[in-house]
Amino acid sequence: MTTTKVSTVEQNKAVMRKIVNGNDAREFYSYLDDVAEDFVGHTAFVPDDLHGNRSLSEFFYLTEEVAFPDGFHVIHNLFGEGDLVTLELSYKGTFTGPLPNGTPPNGKVCEFKYNMISRFADGKLAELWWYSYDSYTLMKELGMI
Q1: Residue 85 pLDDT more than 70?
Q2: Which of 50, 86, 95, 136 is positioned for an S-S bond with 55, CB 3.0–4.6 A?
């Protein structure tokens, strides 16, 4: 018999804070136990999406440690209901390394806001969507437009 772990909204919100804080501390693999092994991340930045808990850590490593080694987040709002948690964040960092999609660095400080919607199952992060973000500002600061 398989037992299902039920988590509270507050526990789910704490996991999202742990992920953001872990990324800012450059501890990208510190939250693997909080992410489901069959995790799926949906994002326009990665054409084939992210699959598996390690893929999330690796994506953040490549986009934050490699591309923006001095980058950090500010959580502006964190909401939860049922198995869903939504974060409103901003990110600021110097673009000194290439992005996974091949965008070359320009040495500029980039700052943009975005939202994430996450779904939890069995007490672990199961899905993550990068929802609305200020794509014009981001693309401009990355030197793409």
Answers
A1: yes
A2: 50
Q: pTM of the entire structure?
A: 0.88
12 within 8 A of 85, measured Cβ to Cβ: yes
116 close to 128: Cβ distance less than 8 angstroms:
yes
The token pair at 95 is 């673009």
Q: Rounded to whole angstroms, how far apart are CA atoms 135 and 132?
A: 8
Q: Which residue, among 110, 133, 121, has the nearest Cα to 45 in the 3D structure? A: 133
Question: Which CATH number fits the domain that encloses residue 68?
Answer: 3.10.450.50
Residue 41 lies in a domain: yes
**Residue 125, number of CB atoms within 10 A of its CB:** 23
pLDDT tens sequence across 34-59:
999 999 998 776 667 788 889 889 98
123 within a domain of the structure (yes/no):
yes
Strand partners, 113: 90
Q: How far apart are CA 127 and CA 118, in angstroms?
A: 6
